[in-house]
Write a structure and sequence with these properties.
The protein has about 500 residues and is an alpha/beta fold. It has 16 helices and 15 strands. Helix 8 links the parallel strand 9 and strand 10. The longest helix is centred in the C-terminal third of the chain and has 27 residues. It starts with 5 loop residues before the first strand and ends with a strand.
């Protein structure tokens, strides 16, 4: 089957046919976390989106080198050029070494992504492990005349760069607007222009994280690390660069400028950005309390939701929205995703028990399979793919109930395609049967006890209690059926 994969390129705001720089290889770089706190769900949504892209490219047969960095130095508060390094600040407040902070939250990040069943990247470099490469890149930018050194710090000269190469091509911002909207420098800054950004910062005496350089003992600017590491592992021009929508400006814009100033060509062919995850209709923020960490959601130990939700339900919820759309996390949405997820799981489990016939009826499997691939070929459209998987579940149920038929060959095709997309592409896992059966048996045991109490109330002509139990269960969408053979219940 030929695949006409198209991707939305943030560089021009259009969908473009995907064609790798090398026929069967793909280089992909994704901006990873800054490890000074527990990873939040918004970050997880971004990395799950790129895990989907990574998985599908591999499924199509590409050999993908997926690089995702760890920012463990140089990330100043509020993404500014002044202030305190976030990791150093955390270390100071807790009276521990900065690398203890890095280790703690790197482990948390990796463990959390493993719970979401995200594949590890091919390479996971760190900023502190590439100080030499960053210093060498600064030297090259200085030699090209697009940076300047002041009092031990080095800044990228945005105005000078824009004279030769347009700045702002990714975000659509032009330099005139940036100049007009910038506040004047206060005279204390080492920068020539407010738009300039740090390549190297001289460390103040109290700054813990510092390295020797030709300019001063200091630390690299935030934007520099991604350019240095992406070019080291993927070359001066590679296929895909991704990250959250919030990184488009200034981070990714600055990356483009750094690379183009030295290599004189566009560093990336396709820029891909994942959109935001909100919580109950509002932006997630620790300061407002509108925030929940992944493990708080998995354990149920939070004040946001009344129950816990598994990592697979959360992953499925995120994949039910396109990676470029804003998705709102709420209890109702998660509960709906939980039901949908279990419907898919039950459908896959029924595949092994379907009765076989000589002929198949109902679903055109060839067309259905093409529709599944067409969804993913259209800019990795996971929600449309999932809708097609639900169509297959309806068909599986109709075959199981004797309404439709399927032969052995078609069953093999259906089973292989369903499992490939569910497990390999969407990256979902079926719950352990013991876990699901344990929850199910507890629920059924509770309901059976209520049925017994209700039957005793009816036998004693205590219809008030009997009706109370029935009405209460119906409000919870549990239907009671009284027949001559006895009483049964159905969970709607």
């Amino acid at each position: 089957m030929k695949h006409a994969l198209v991707v939305y390129n943030s560089l021009n705001g259009k969908k473009e046919p995907f064609q790798s720089l090398l026929a069967d290889h793909v280089g992909m770089y994704v901006c990873g976390p800054t490890v000074y706190s527990n990873v939040h769900l918004g970050n997880c949504r971004t990395f799950i989106s790129f895990d989907l892209i990574f998985r599908y490219l591999q499924h199509l047969g590409y050999k993908v080198r997926y690089v995702r960095n760890i920012t463990d130095a140089g990330h100043l508060e509020n993404d500014a050029d002044e202030g305190e390094d976030r990791i150093a600040k955390k270390a100071r407040l807790e009276s521990i070494e900065p690398m203890e902070v890095v280790q703690r939250y790197t482990v948390d990040f990796r463990n959390t992504m493993a719970q979401f069943n995200a594949l590890p990247p091919s390479i996971e470099p760190t900023a502190t492990g590439h100080i030499v490469e960053q210093i060498e890149l600064i030297k090259q930018i200085l030699e090209e005349g697009y940076a300047y050194e002041t009092n031990g710090s080095v800044y990228f000269d945005v105005i000078r760069f824009n004279e030769d190469i347009p700045y702002g091509k990714l975000s659509g911002r032009n330099i005139e607007d940036l100049v007009h909207n910038s506040r004047a420098l206060d005279g204390q800054s080492d920068k020539r222009n407010p738009q300039d950004f740090a390549l190297w910062k001289k460390a103040e005496p109290e700054h813990i994280m510092r390295w020797p350089s030709p300019w001063s003992d200091g630390f690299p600017g935030w934007h520099l690390e991604c350019t240095a590491m992406s070019t080291k592992y993927l070359g001066t021009q590679f296929d895909i660069h991704g990250g959250g929508m919030d990184l488009k400006f200034p981070h990714h814009e600055c990356e483009i400028a750094q690379a183009e100033s030295v290599y004189k060509k566009a560093p990336v062919k396709y820029w891909i950005h994942a959109n935001m995850l909100t919580l109950n209709g509002k932006k997630m923020a620790k300061s407002t309390g509108n925030n929940i960490l992944p493990n708080e959601m998995f354990s149920g130990q939070n004040t946001i939701f009344k129950k816990s939700f598994s990592p697979m339900v959360a992953r499925f919820f995120m994949l039910q929205a396109h990676y470029r759309s804003i998705v709102d996390l709420s209890e109702n949405a998660l509960e709906a995703s939980e039901k949908g997820f279990h419907r898919l799981v039950e459908g896959i489990e029924k595949l092994e028990q379907l009765p076989l016939c000589e002929n198949s009826t109902g679903l055109d499997l060839k067309q259905w399979t093409q529709s599944c691939y067409a969804a993913m070929d259209d800019d990795f459209n996971s929600p449309v793919l999932i809708a097609h998987l639900f169509d297959a579940v309806k068909y599986i149920n109709s075959v199981s109930n004797g309404i439709q038929q399927i032969n052995s060959k078609d069953l093999n095709t259906l089973s292989h395609t369903m499992k490939s997309f569910f497990f390999d592409v969407l990256g979902l896992l079926t719950p352990e049967k013991g876990d699901r059966n344990g929850e199910s048996s507890q629920l059924e045991g509770t309901l059976e006890l209520l049925m017994e109490l209700r039957n005793k109330a009816r036998a004693n002509k205590d219809f008030k209690t009997s009706d109370l139990i029935r009405d209460s269960l119906e409000r919870m969408k549990i239907q009671i059926n009284d027949t001559a053979e006895g009483t049964s219940f159905k969970i709607n």
